[in-house]
Amino acid sequence: MRGDGERQPIKFWTAVSAAFARKVEFDIAYEKASMTQDQLKQAVARAALDYVAASVPTGAIVGVGTGSTANFFIDELATIKHRLGGAVASSAATQRRLEGHGIRVFDLNDVDRLPVYVDGADEIDHGLSMIKGGGGALTREKIVAAAADIFVCICDQSKRVRTMGRFPLPIEVIPMARARVARELARFGGEPRLREGFVTDNGNLILDVHGLSITDPAALESELDHVVGIVTNGLFARRGADLLLLADPACVETFKRPAV
């Protein structure tokens, strides 16, 4: 019979192998947990591309949003541009990026149907209502979203909230009405601040309303629509997202808009 000393190397290497396996698992978990926000945006942009590739017919024209997450999606969209008829852009910046990839950009007036619109959000609640407009393109974003059959929102987990309002609500206003609209907005309990040095693609100004707690997004959106001087408010509740692709370090989850 072998002595205990002869069995020790087997025990030792078994322990080393187990420790190595635990380290590999830890490293993988750490890598996922330490994903940067850009990596999360990249992951959700790829998921959106998969959705478009699987659901949009060849030759279709798609709507494309504005912002950093939308930019990742545009870069991914370029890989299937041969299958697309083109795109409708929600801002001048998006149009330039699309055209830089060789994707044809259409005026919305020349398009009969948009099967899908893909865009990010500054905040999105569990009912898939959103605050948008951090990039200042809220009016054109809302128009393109309204024209699309399906609105796919793409964002990372930091944007999903139970009650919106921590992110300041953007309001596009006619320049001559800025002061009057600011006084009206104060009635809603927030603090409107002019976005200094910024002019929208439509030649208007942005007031960002801080300090709101938005418990009924659709009602507030409707109320703001009746304030004279407001062009568009950044609440996308009456026409919210139909589908949310949400990136976290583990995966990209899919959420559908609750039935009313």
What this model shows, in words?
The chain is an alpha/beta fold and 260 residues long. The chain folds into 2 domains: 37-161 and 238-256, 3-Layer(aba) Sandwich (Rossmann fold), CATH 3.40.50.1360; 169-233, Alpha-Beta Plaits (2-Layer Sandwich), CATH 3.30.70.260. Helices cover 37% and strands 23% of the residues. The protein is built from 7 helices and 14 strands. It has helices at 4-33, 37-55, 68-77, 92-100, 138-147, 178-186, 217-225, and strands at residues 61-64, 86-89, 105-106, 114-119, 123-124, 130-131, 148-156, 169-173, 191-194, 205-210, 230-233, 235-236, 243-247, 252-256. The strands form 3 sheets. A 7-stranded mixed beta sheet has the order 3-2-1-4-7-13-14, sandwiched between helices. Helix 3 links the parallel strand 1 (61-64) and strand 2. Helix 2 (37-55) packs across helix 3 (68-77). The protein is globular, with a radius of gyration of 24 Å.
Question: What's a quick, concise take on this entry?
Answer:
This protein is an alpha/beta fold and 260 residues long.
How would you describe this structure in keywords?
260 residues, alpha/beta, Alpha-Beta Plaits, 2 domains, 7-stranded mixed sheet, 4-stranded antiparallel sheet, 14 strands
Give the tally of β-strands: 14
Reported by name, the CATH topology of the largest domain is Rossmann fold
Count, helices: 7
- Overall number of structural domains: 2
| Name of the CATH class of the largest domain | Alpha Beta
| Widest β-sheet, arrangement of strands | 3-2-1-4-7-13-14
Summarize model confidence as the mean pLDDT.
90
The CATH architecture of the largest domain would be: 3-Layer(aba) Sandwich
The largest sheet, given as strand count, sense and whether it forms a barrel, is: 7 strands, mixed
Q: H/E series, N to C?
A: HHEHEHEEEEHEEHEEHEEEE
Shape: globular
SS content category: alpha/beta
Low-pLDDT ranges: 1-6, 19-32
| Helical residue percent band | 25-40%
How far apart the termini lie comes to: 76 Å
Rg over CA atoms: 24 Å
